[in-house]
Amino acid sequence: MHAPTSPAQLIEHRTLFIDGKWTEPSGTEVIEVVSPATGQVVGRVPHGSPADMDRAVDAARRAFDDGPWPRLPLADRIEVVSRIRDALAERREEMAQLVTLQNGSPITWSRAGQAMSGVAAFSTTLAAAAELCLEEERQGLGGPVLVRREPIGVVAAITPWNVPQLTLAAKLAPGLVAGCTFVIKPSPETPLDAYLLAEICAEAGLPDGVVNVVPADRESGAHLVAHPGVDKVAFTGSVPAGKAIMASAAQNLTRVSLELGGKSAALILDDADVAAAIPAIVGGTCAANSGQACVALTRVLVHASRYDEVASALSGAFAQLKVGDPADERTIVGPMVTSRQRQRVLDYIRIGRDEGATVLTGGGVPDDLDTGWFVQPTLFGDVTNDMRIAREEIFGPVVCLIRYDDEDEAVRIANDSPFGLSGAVFTADVERGMRIARRIRTGTLTVNGFRLDLAAPFGGFKQSGIGREFGAEGLAGYFEYQSVALPKASTTVH
């Protein structure tokens, strides 16, 4: 399977991946995949119905309850997951091209931030698994206790359109290592890469039913979340969708992990090297999947003494970013994923103007792009933290500049948000940066840069989510713990 070079080469799948087989869907509805760069249909897949979800959950349930996968030695599961990782690495260019075709990520970003980041998530999980102890004997208050890690069960993995491979790898890699089985519901905007992953999983030797792939809309997704055969829902997406999932899952006390939105702050201190900070901020905003990233540094907090300098430098940097064809290796900012998403971003730009913020650069649609769903990289100045553009997640190439007078005010502004996902501090004094980092209520933060390290736990405070992904902490989220109290004279062998 190869990504098309033109819309004429339609990628069409007529089946779903259920119980280790390419299976006819129960209905006739289809999902059309539309290129955000051209507005033309480039792919077509079946639209999974609630009945299809039932079949997929039943297959995953049988594979977990009666199949070999959860009962294999950990080393055997690691071997199979390693084969999946290696195949993803081998087919990384194919994966990158597919993602760019579907969601418009600039191809250079798709290679690093989409395809290879998924491979890296598998690698860090495998590294954590190598240190894993599934059974540990401890001395309890009344005698020895055996603490056991058991796989959590059937996982519904629901992934978004912006970074479909990374967000899926963050769930699939640890869950498979743990011994879980999966029903994967990719976003209807980006289902094609999930088909490639299903193909890779089948070739790697996963038993039937361990991984099932059913593209669908929210209605079928809601049916999956509410299914009594699901033991955990692992979701990445918006806060409203996360709240709905949590409410639905509560009916069955289904476990949930939720990686949700962000409105992250980059603090530029009075002693910062602005020339060094600007590329990091650009990389963490407009150049991060065209601003369609939950970790984006969309609030830039600047000491009043450096405000004009930063405003000028950042405006100039934004104005130089190449916006255009995501297949062009020179492109830094591609299109928004849908026309609806572009209109949402443009509406927020209008709201910002109405609130009294000043557009320093951008603020509309590029004049030279008459097809596709593009938005100019936009920098707002004169923003206060009570404005909607400073409080609500826009999910596009829109950044707010906010003045502050001292460190305490900067920390207060950074923490004055319903979100707490990412952030950055720029300063000439790393110890000073660390002191501030310890005061900011956010799940990840970089001193003098912008980095998401897939070997470390990732997740959010407040409305940015529940739980952590990546590394040992991400792996822990796919286990239940069983404690077995042993007779005092007993010594187990394991």
Key words describing this protein structure:
single chain; Aldehyde Dehydrogenase, Chain A, domain 2; Aldehyde Dehydrogenase, Chain A, domain 1; alpha/beta; 15 helices; 2 domains; 494 residues; 20% strand
Our count of helices gives 15
According to CATH, the fold-level topology of the largest domain is Aldehyde Dehydrogenase, Chain A, domain 1
What proportion strand?
15-25%
Q: Any idea what the radius of gyration is?
A: 23 Å
Mean pLDDT: 96
Low-confidence stretches: 1-7
Helix fraction, binned, reads 25-40%
Please give the CATH architecture of the largest domain.
3-Layer(aba) Sandwich
Envelope shape: globular
Largest sheet: 7 strands, mixed
Alpha-beta classification: alpha/beta
| Number of E strands | 23
CATH class of the largest domain: Alpha Beta
CATH H-tier superfamily of the largest domain: Aldehyde Dehydrogenase, Chain A, domain 1
What does it look like?
This protein is an alpha/beta fold and 494 residues long. The protein has two domains: 11-260 and 464-482, 3-Layer(aba) Sandwich (Aldehyde Dehydrogenase, Chain A, domain 1); 265-454, Aldehyde Dehydrogenase, Chain A, domain 2 (3-Layer(aba) Sandwich). The chain is built from 15 helices and 23 strands. The chain has helices spanning 50-65, 74-90, 92-103, 107-129, 164-178, 192-204, 218-226, 239-250, 274-283, 307-319, 339-355, 388-391, 407-415, 430-437, 471-476, and strands at residues 11-12, 16-18, 21-23, 30-34, 41-46, 135-139, 144-151, 154-158, 181-185, 211-213, 232-236, 255-259, 265-268, 299-303, 358-361, 378-383, 398-404, 419-420, 423-426, 446-447, 461-462, 465-466, 479-485. Strands 15-16-17-14-13-19-20 form a seven-stranded mixed beta sheet, with helices on both faces. Strand 8, helix 5 and strand 9 form a beta-alpha-beta unit. The protein is globular and about 70 Å long. The model is unreliable at 1-7 (pLDDT under 50). This is aldehyde dehydrogenase (NAD(+)). The active site is at 259.
